[in-house]
Amino acid sequence: MTDLHELTTDNMEISGESIAAGNGVLGQRMLRKEDPALLTGEAIYTNDMKVPGALYMAVLRSPHAHARIVSIDTSAAAALDGVHSVYSGADLADSWAAPMPCAWPVTDDMKNPAHYPLAVSKVHYVGDGVCAVLAVNDSIAHDALDLIDVEYDVLPAVIDLEKSLSDDIVIHEELGTNKSYTWPLVIEDNEGDCQKAMDESAYVVKERYIQQRLIPMAMEPRAVVALPQPFGGDMTLYSSTQVPHILKVMTALTLGIPEHQLRVVCPAVGGGFGSKLNVYAEELLCVQLAKTLKVPVRWNEERSENAQATIHGRAQIQDIELAADENGKITGLRVRLIGDMGAYLQLVTPGVPLLGAFLYGGVYEIPKAFDFSCTSVFTTMTPTDAYRGAGRPEATYAIEHAMDALARKMDIDPLVLRRRNFIPKEAFPYEAYTGLVYDSGDHDKAATVAENILDYDAMRAKQAAQNVAGSTKRLGIGVSTYFEMCGLAPSRVLASLNYSAGGWESATVRVLPTSKIQVVTGTSPHGQGHETAWSMIAADKFGVDPSDVDVLHSDTAIAPLGLDTYGSRSLPVGGVAVGLACDKVIDKARKIAAHQMEANEDDLEFAGGMFTVKGSPDKTMPLAAIAFEAFTAHNLPDGLEPNLEMQVTYDPPNFSWPFGTHMCAIEIDTETGAVEVLQYVAVDDCGNKVNPLIVDGQVHGGVIQGLAQALFEEARYDDDGNLLSSTLAEYLVPAASDVPPITLGESVTPSPTNSLGVKGVGEAGTIGAAPCIMNAVVDALSGLGVQDIQMPASPLNVWNAIQQAQATNQENNA
Amino acid sequence: MEVSVTINGTVQTHDVEPRTLLVQYIRDHAGLTGTNIGCDTSSCGACSIHLNGEAVKSCTVLAVQADGQEVRTIEGMADADGTLHPMQQAFMENHGLQCGYCTPGMVMAATSLLAENANPSEHDVRIGLEGNLCRCTGYQNIVKSVLAAASA
Amino acid sequence: MIPAQFDYVRAESAEEAISLIGQHGDEAKFIAGGHSLLPLMKLRLAQPTVLVDIGRLSDLSYIREDGDMIAIGAMTRHMDVENSPVLKEHAPLLAHAASHVGDPQVRHRGTIGGSIAHSDSASDLPATTLAMGATYVAQGPNGTREIAAGDFFQGFLTTALAPDEMLTEIRVPKMGSAGWSFQKFNRRAQDWAIVGVAAWRNGTESGVGLVNMGSVPILASGVSAAIASGASIEDAAAEAATGTDPTADLNASIEYRQHLARILTKRALTEATS
Fold first, then answer.
1. Which ipTM was obtained for this model?
2. pLDDT reported for residue A10
3. Contact status of C187 with chain B (Cβ, < 8 Å)
4. Burial of C270 (C-beta count, 10 Å sphere; 0-12/13-18/19+)
5. How far is Cα C253 from Cα C194, in angstroms, rounded to an integer?
């Protein structure tokens, strides 16, 4: 692998400027521009669109995890009144120019089975598409599904990762194996170091953690409308997606549609969390059928379909060995992962474990004695892919849970152990053992802020008093720290990881003739408030009110260049691009101002929307006047093009590295196994904040999603590969009644790698929360002999763990 | 069959199948798409509306059951002059929404909650919204919004 | 999400409803609030061909004192049970249990009669009224009859109601000075109980109903027998799971459910005794 240090530190520009350099808009808790439309029902989500003449698609899904399709009889369905047509996979087999895309072939020999929108000869998970029905309305389309007769030859399901690796049952026969790939993180000149550390260190903890499968469950299920122009030849795809630009390229390639004739639009999108960072069968089916039939085709996903046919997340087995010297200073780290790919590779499925590979060292000084490799396998379950954090929550969980295990082994306080290993503030920018460079950090500060809010020492004293023998209400205290690698990403780093695309982002800024400002961004928000935040960035640059700025996005005809919204990338890449485009517009405006005021460009100051000649406060020219001059083009400098519009494509020089400390206090009712979170403190340092209101909201939501992994959620399959938790009645997304309030603590350490000093924040809360809660759960019960508990720490799992520990204690005492 | 429902003060009559859910009637027949559908098990509350002044899940009511009744949807909350309902205003001021998909249902459930308990505690609000799921906000600012609306 | 097709008729009186259900035979179902039936129909787990809507029978929505009993019309909504001053005074256990059904939206629509006639053992009100020694009034083509709660629940979603009978009234004894407790254990507030216990106690007399501990709501008669014989709460509660045959699911093993039944019964009796 290429030296990552080389790839990330080139171009690094250090800027320590205050974020609020302009008109004071940045850093304000400005209310969101998006809200009135969303609050009144005016916002249009994809399934709200009124499309005259559209046919409704419904998809018949496999009820079996693994089966051969023997025969399909669609005649009764086709004969139903209101049904237009019915298609099997075989009927459409010639329609696809290429299989469904996987954009991340992590190794040259990675196995990737051909995957088509409808299965042709075999189905590989419950929910795999088998037939598509088109009808005049949704109800009839679903009625018709009941009339399709499919005969299956049922084969054994494969749901256990280690059994899958044995290849006793090969899921995709053409591959000859269930193993997709093995990927090691190669570190130069460290051969044998890790084993030596394991052999020679004072302490070694060896743990196995299971990252259970999760279902993202964005509140808006997916929806698609494909709107053809049969005579003009153009096709518009409306989809509830996070990635209109990626979807456009991939749809063009998969369907053989000329890219310039394809437009992708996402109307309002009701959350994504990675689940809409994909190219899905239903998008391709709607476009292909609309193209062939020359009528609009639409599809609305039902929730139980969403649980089966939209990607799942996490799903890894982690074996971690952590070595430390007699003081607890980490001396070596070994990680072996088995990643559950599910039945097929979706857009970035194989890359998810790699995103975590760089974070197993947490916030600590880790020597080069680091040994990581991941083996990924196919199973007969829903494909996995990026879910909020994508690889990074898993990695953080492993190191943070192992640190607690080490602290217990050493019998020292877990916070004390962490402090002994923190990378000190003065060491940043810090080149880590992986070759990547962490931009900035102040872990001791984040920990101290959290410690003070929780009143850590007092809480420990309370715990000692409460957790006495016979107590049925045991107090647990959880600590978790994290570093997150986000702001995806420097394109050359992505290249070194075999990712098929870049990590840049585009912004166009134009000042209209009447001086109103349009910002066009390649990011594609679905709840993150980019219209507000990008307006604030531009307003600050130009010295105007944010209400004078409009942000255009999520339509490839309006914003043709972009790489969309995922991986906490929008602000540190897309938002920074907006700021840089504003700078370019101001530079051009300066030329016009200098020309018209007959001054030297260098003598002009720009503030509050006004150019002023230095030393001549009466010689001024407002931006509004320059915008009109640029529009009329009557009197511009020689060679200068009319209009005030500039485009920037920004490729970040480094990832951004948010960090933080979470702490919590929980109480466990040992009679029932119920866990109650008494207090939750999150200190998330994401550098400068454009809008703290939005930042806080991102952290709140992230924390509760991480807490939900720890306590509530799990995609459970039975031995036959049936998804048992396929509705929101069984898959326990918690409600307000089921979660605690969160206290946020403040820490701001600007990033030196971008002009705004910002870092991403979309995934941070999720990354910190699961290990924090689970550390508290084990902390509460370790006095009873409980070593660990499998997530989620449901009452059943907690109670079982207590029973087992008591049985073991009795055996040992006997 | 013919079903007449007064929606946001206007009587509407549409010819629908008996199996038509009230949420489909509102969205597909009355054309009011502010009410969203988030699940198929009456779990998420995204489709909450007021039926005769009380919050119900419109995915779990047949349109025929609402025949002759009064329905209020999110489109009926703000004043005609554009002034937001105090609950909508509170959600805006307290960042009680992100993607907005659960929001109409939350607003309808929350106004129904305040109609039954004008001075709720934080606990009352959390329990009172037990039937509404949100995936974005962690509920912190939703609870804050409802408490703010209660004291407005 | 979309139910299979069916025909719909709205009854204007109990007599008409009974006549309609008789005409349409086995595939017809009553619908009241619809909060037990519609979720099944939307997933196409139930596909009745005819629905007889009894939700407009407003004369079956009432709560009134009747001597030593409280009479509750079958069409009374959970929210009205929860908020009834009469029940709060004379049968607070039932009012409180109703406040735990589903969520507020569900309680605005769902009815006590619908819940009991559906007879899901995981529902709160069948076991609660069973614990209270309720009587259910059924009306059929040949008039009305009373069915003791103990005789009503016959198997999984099966009751003593004849196909052409309709539950019209629930009669619960006034609780007098009895202590009471309702313990519902679940992971999310809106969910069904993993295990629930409804209990009342007046000296040596008591009633304990178990939610979700088998295919039918269960009266823990062993617990009451122990209390009657002067056993301690601990010892009585130890009998709670005796003879139960609960199922395992995502949230509980059989062993864990039986353990919860004992723990929650202990807590319920403790609260009811204080």
1. 0.99
2. 40
3. no
4. middle
5. 10
Sheet (strand B54-57) strand order: B10-15, B2-7, B70-72, B48-51, B54-57
Please tell me which of the candidates B131, B135, B142 has its beta carbon nearest to residue A219: B135
**Tens digits of per-residue pLDDT, A750-788?**
999 999 999 999 999 999 999 999 999 999 999 999 999
Separation in Å, CA of A400 to nearest CA in chain B:
23
Q: How far is CA C177 from the centre of its chain?
A: 23
Share of chain C above pLDDT 90, in %: 97
Residue A17 has pLDDT above 60, yes or no: no
Pairwise CB contact (< 8 Å): C189 & A735: yes
CB contact under 8 A, B36 and A220: yes
Q: What is the dihedral of CA C216, C222, C223, C226, to 10 degrees?
A: 170
Helix (H, G, I), strand (E, B), or coil: what is residue A141?
helix
**Cis ω on the peptide bond leading into residue A429 (within 30° of 0)?**
yes
**What is the gyration radius of the CA atoms in chain A, in angstroms?**
28
The residues in B 35-74 lying below 8 A from A, measured between CB atoms, are: 35-44, 46, 73-74
Whether A621 shows a pLDDT value over 50: the answer reads yes
Taking the C-alpha atoms of residue C68 and residue A566, their distance in angstroms, rounded to an integer, is 65
Instruction: Establish whether the linkage from the previous residue to A489 is cis, with ω within 30° of 0.
Output: yes
| Tokens 């200098």 -> residue | A594
Phi, psi of B150 (to 5 degrees): -65, -35
C-alpha distances in Å from residue B66, one per residue of B18, B45, C3, C30: 11, 18, 17, 16
In DSSP notation, B52-106 reads TTEEEEGGGSBGGGGTT-EEE-GGGTS-TTSPPPHHHHHHHHTT--SS-SSHHHH
Q: How many other C-beta atoms can be found within 10 angstroms of the C-beta atom of residue A615?
A: 8
Cβ-Cβ contacts under 8 Å for C263 (sequence gap 6 or more)? A671, A672, C237
Nearest to A772 by CA among A418, A386, A319: A418
Pseudo-torsion of CA A635, A636, A639, A642, nearest 10°? Answer: -110
pLDDT tens for each residue of C183-237: 999 999 999 999 999 999 999 999 999 999 999 999 999 999 999 999 999 999 9
Query: Comparing C-alpha atoms, which of C185, C187, C181, C182 is closest to residue C195?
Result: C185
3-state SS, residue A660: strand
| pLDDT tier for residue A3 given thresholds of 50, 70 and 90 | low
Give percent of chain B with pLDDT exceeding 90.
Answer: 98
Residue A318 sits at the vertex; the CA angle it makes with A180 and C250, to the nearest 5 degrees, is 95
The answer to whether the beta carbons of residues A391 and A356 sit under 8 Å apart is yes
Q: Where are the beta strands (DSSP E) in A343-472?
A: 370-378, 430-431, 437-438
Q: Provide the residue count of chain A.
A: 814
- Residues of B within 8 A of C104 (CB-CB) are 55, 109, 112-113, 116, 128, 130-131
Structure-token pair, residue A382: 């829903």
What residues in chain A have their Cβ under 8 A from chain C's Cβ atoms? 138-139, 142-143, 146, 302-304, 671-674, 712, 714, 716, 724-725, 727, 729-730, 732, 734-735, 737-738, 794-796, 799-800
Collapsing DSSP states into helix, strand and coil, what is residue C73? strand
A11 class by beta-carbon count within 10 Å (0-12 exposed, 13-18 middle, 19+ buried): exposed
| Furthest C-alpha separation in chain C | 57
Tell me which chain A residue has its CA closest to the CA of residue B143.
A736
State the Cα–Cα distance between residues A795 and C193, nearest whole angstrom. Answer: 13
pLDDT, tens digit, 9 for 90 and up, residues A469-521:
999 999 999 999 999 999 999 999 999 999 999 999 999 999 999 999 999 99
Question: Residue C5 is nearest to which of B19, B43, B57, comparing CB atoms?
Answer: B19
Helix ranges restricted to H, chain C: 14-24, 37-42, 78-83, 85-90, 92-98, 104-109, 112-118, 124-131, 149-152, 221-228, 233-237, 254-273
